[in-house]
Amino acid sequence: MRILLGVSGGIAAYKVPSVLRSLREDGHAVRVIPTRAALDFVGTATWEALSGQPVTTSVFDGAESVDHVRLGREAELVVVAPATADLLARAAAGIADDLLTATLLTVTCPVLLAPAMHTEMWQHPATRANVATLRERGVHVLDPAVGRLTGADSGPGRMPEPEDIVAAAHRLLAGTPEDLAGRRVVISAGGTREPLDPVRFLGNRSSGRQGVALARNAAERGAEVELVAANVEAAVLSGLPGSVAVTPVETTADLQAAMQAAADDADVLIMAAAVADFRPAGARADKTKKNPDGSVEPLELVQNPDILAGLVAERRPGQVVAGFAAETGDADGSVLDHGRAKARRKGADLLAVNAVGTALGFGDVPNAVHLLDAAGEDLGEGAGSKDDVARVVWDAVVRLLTH
Ligand code: C5P
After folding, report:
1. Ligand 1: distance of its center to the CA of 160 in Å?
2. Nearest-atom index, ligand 1, CA of 326
3. How open is the CA angle 112-117-121, to the nearest 5 degrees?
4. 272 CA to middle of ligand 1, Å?
5. Dihedrals φ, ψ of 17, to 5°?
6. What is the pLDDT along the chain (403 residues), one digit of tens a residue?
7. CB within 8 Å of 199: residues ≥ 6 apart
8. Domains identified in the chain and CATH numbers
9. Which amino acid residue places its CA nearest to atom 13 of ligand 1?
10. Which residues does a 6 A CB cutoff place in the pocket of ligand 1?
11. Nearest CA residue ID for atom 19, ligand 1
12. N- to C-terminal Cα distance for the chain?
């Protein structure tokens, strides 16, 4: 695809060659249009060498081919990174005093802006108004990341990480819907661990991959996402965009507290975590030892609360509460029979029922789900990778949110 990469004059420009590199490695033709100030940070030679295309800043260079109109017509995506406060202001006002801003007035393709500036500048009413104007016009303005800024200061205003900018560019090129924009969603993932003593626990084989896929897809669709992660390995969490807030938990009690705390202002709650139904009665402070005769004390278990049922009971009007049910078929019924009975028992707006076995369900394996409503009636089905299943689940949740 043909991408225009605008670069405005901020220190974060030093990270943008890696955005250019990734886009080129993914097979896109990228033309770089820096502002004059951007060249104070990264020079023309770098942009030309990495893009393999000529680089100019002014509409008067190459005037014979009327570059700002030609480039604008040909572009299939425009990315501006970093987008400084000044660039946002000029774009919002429709000022066209260099090649980049003139081109922004000619393009009809999607435009993605990755802001970077000091916190005071990002929070200034002038910048807020410019961002609101641009978003109203359909421009995709990423929220800046929170973190270390140029000097000693830190806060919102850091340019989103290059990989997040590239991921957002891919979403726009793929036409991913933004149907969760403005929604806050909270997802639990992984498996709880119930301590027996300081070294042992009762746990399960859930990897957290399905919950991470749900979080990733929700973020891609524009939601503000919190992932309550029960013992999810760092390697699995590394698949999340930087905008997803991760709350690590260990036990069912931790997970329940985190979900309840997050539930108040959430539009959607999804319980994708495998929660232990029982925990050892009274975890021991010392490591459990064998009796002198080699025998062990029997394990006494007490029941855990059903977190999903609690969230359903306290659901606010308009809030969607969903769960997952991992089932196996047996003599009493099929996976779906058990799923329908569970859907009626749990009362969630949506229950995604999946068959578990050695090659399905847990871990880095494909997944397949039947979506049921609180009456056990079909809301659809999906199969494939965990990302495919996540898309099907969110499609169904979006239908519930908008009806
Ligand atoms: O384990 P079960 O099949 O009942 O899980 C179905 C759903 O209920 C899942 O969404 C799971 O996260 C949730 N659950 C829960 N609290 C429990 C057990 C399960 O919220 N104690």
Report:
1. 35
2. 3
3. 110
4. 8
5. -55, -30
6. 999 999 999 999 999 999 999 999 999 999 999 999 999 999 999 999 999 999 999 888 877 777 778 888 899 999 999 999 999 999 999 999 999 999 999 999 999 999 999 999 999 999 999 999 999 999 999 999 988 888 788 888 999 999 999 999 998 998 888 899 889 999 999 999 999 999 999 999 899 999 999 999 999 898 999 999 999 999 999 989 888 999 999 999 999 999 999 999 999 999 999 999 999 998 788 888 888 998 888 889 999 999 999 999 999 999 999 999 988 889 999 999 999 999 999 999 999 998 776 455 555 667 889 999 999 999 999 988 899 999 999 999 999 997 7
7. 287
8. 2-174 (3.40.50.1950), 184-401 (3.40.50.10300)
9. 308
10. 271, 273, 275, 277, 304, 306-308, 323-325
11. 275
12. 36
CA of 152 to the centre of ligand 1 (A): 46
Instruction: Supply the pTM of this predicted model.
Output: 0.76
Enter the DSSP assignment of 304.
P
User: Is 37:67 a contact under the CB 8 Å cutoff?
Assistant: no
CB 33 within 8 A of CB 71: yes
Q: Is 217 a catalytic residue?
A: no
